[in-house]
Amino acid sequence: MRDTALSLTAVSKVLPNGRSLFDGLDLHLAAGEHVAVRGESGVGKSTLLNIIAGLDSADAGSVRVAGRDLSTRDEAARTALRRDAIGFVFQAFHVLPHLSLAQNVAFPLILQGRSRAPALVRAGELLDAVGLGDRRRSYPKELSGGELQRVAIARALVHEPALILADEPTGNLDPDTAATIMGLLTQAVRTRGAAMLLVTHSVAAAATADRRLLLTARGLVPGDD
């Protein structure tokens, strides 16, 4: 039986205006499993990822990542858990403008206390994998939106996390590059035993998943195959 990388039990979230996003939501991902979540805009897909990452809090229920319960941890412990166990691909990239691409990708390793030189070597390997190896000394302002998305994906994978959270990772990419990136993410799941929760509007991206779910006002339901 595979280890559980992510477990959400009876998770509820109410917005400040009183609207309920989730009520009693359950979701479980095994190590090495890839699950895609689709849903209409505003239904709470990004909020769900933020709750899993400990960037937002649920109003009820429990969230466990790699066996660790977020609800029992303070902000410093949540930050450490994100640093060590989670790779997050944000829609807005969140690259650091004053760092080169290699430095951006190496940043999670530096935060873990890794030595700078091997961290930059590892970052270069990931930039090669996303097709940006010859741009490693460039800065974010020199890149297109699609290229920045690839940098964000390389950074999310560099520390070999137990759980990958991907928020529209192919949203700024052309179809060919999107297919390459999904292949890279899927490879991380298959070969390294990471679990991945993918939030996407893309039918093609969702088709790569082991399970496809739809987030609705009623919670998570099986999606169309």
Task: Note the topology.
Elements: E1 4-14, E2 20-30, E3 34-38, H1 45-52, E4 60-65, E5 68-69, H2 75-85, E6 86-89, H3 101-111, H4 116-129, H5 145-157, E7 163-167, H6 175-192, E8 195-199, H7 203-206, E9 211-216, E10 219-222
Parallel strand pairs: 3-8, 3-9, 6-7, 7-8
Antiparallel strand pairs: 1-2, 1-4, 4-5, 9-10
Helix pairs in contact: 3-4, 3-5, 4-5
Structure summarized in a few sentences:
With 225 residues, this protein is α/β, with parallel strands linked by helices.
Which key terms come to mind for this protein?
six-stranded mixed beta sheet; Rossmann fold; 225 residues; 35% helix
What does this structure look like?
This protein is α/β, with parallel strands linked by helices. The protein has a single domain, classed as Rossmann fold (3-Layer(aba) Sandwich), CATH 3.40.50. The protein is built from seven helices and ten strands. The protein has helices at 45-52, 75-85, 101-111, 116-129, 145-157, 175-192, 203-206, and strands at residues 4-14, 20-30, 34-38, 60-65, 68-69, 86-89, 163-167, 195-199, 211-216, 219-222. The strands form two sheets. A six-stranded mixed sheet has the order 6-7-8-3-9-10, with helices on both faces. Strands 2-1-4-5 form a four-stranded antiparallel sheet, with no helix packed on it. A hairpin with a 5-residue loop joins β1 and β2 (20-30). α3 (101-111) packs parallel to α5. The longest helix has 18 residues, at 175-192. It is globular, with a radius of gyration of 17 Å. The two termini are 25 Å apart. The mean pLDDT is 89.
